[in-house]
Amino acid sequence: MEDILLYHGSGEIVEFPEIRKTKYTKDFSWGFYCTINYEQAYKWANKRSQNGFVNIYKYTENKDLKIKKFETMSDEWLDFITDCRSGKVHSYDIVEGPMADDTIWNYVNDYINGDIPRSVFWELAKFKHPTHQISFHSIQALECLKFERSEAIHEIQ
Fold first, then answer.
1. Residue 96: helix, strand or coil by DSSP?
2. What is the percent of the chain with per-residue pLDDT over 90, rounded to a whole number?
3. I need a surface site. Which of 27, 68, 95, 104 has the fewest CB within 10 A?
4. CB neighbours (10 Å) of residue 102?
5. Across the strands, what pairs with 151?
6. Is 54 helix (H, G, I), strand (E, B) or coil?
């Protein structure tokens, strides 16, 4: 597999990525999140800080790691996100797939809370186009990333 560029939006330059356990779990649980979409990383950086950065990494996949890839939103993807958002831990080093944006996340939350059934979730979500995310969940996974550079998204005063 050839190397690809991944982007991570942050309020700081992240030369050495870390996995941080936080109060709330994300789509694929705790991990270091990147995307192949520069604009998405830019939005993450802009949302988190007035001095945001898009950090750019070269990613080389390691076939020896336990990797889970979701090509599209599916029942398996929805169940996985539901489990992760509910605090269940998985054993994957890397997870890649669609990201539940704010609108889709609201539908996922309604589904998790039992406010809507699975069929209604899919009816609401079918016209939404999720963005991409890839998350790194182990030290071995983080070793697949090589920091290339960072770009400030605002003029630094």
1. strand
2. 68
3. 68
4. 6
5. 54
6. strand
CA-based end-to-end distance of the chain:
41
What string of pLDDT tens digits covers the 157 residues of the chain? 578 999 999 999 999 999 987 777 788 999 999 999 999 999 888 876 678 999 999 999 999 999 999 999 999 999 999 999 888 989 999 999 998 777 888 888 899 999 999 999 999 888 777 789 999 999 999 999 999 999 998 765 4
Q: In this structure, which amino acid lies at residue 107?
A: Y
Report yes or no: 136 and 145 within 8 Å, Cβ to Cβ. Answer: yes
Angle at the Cα of 151 (from 146 to 153), degrees rounded to 5? Answer: 140
Does this model's pTM top 0.85? My answer is: yes
Domain extent listing, the chain = 4-152
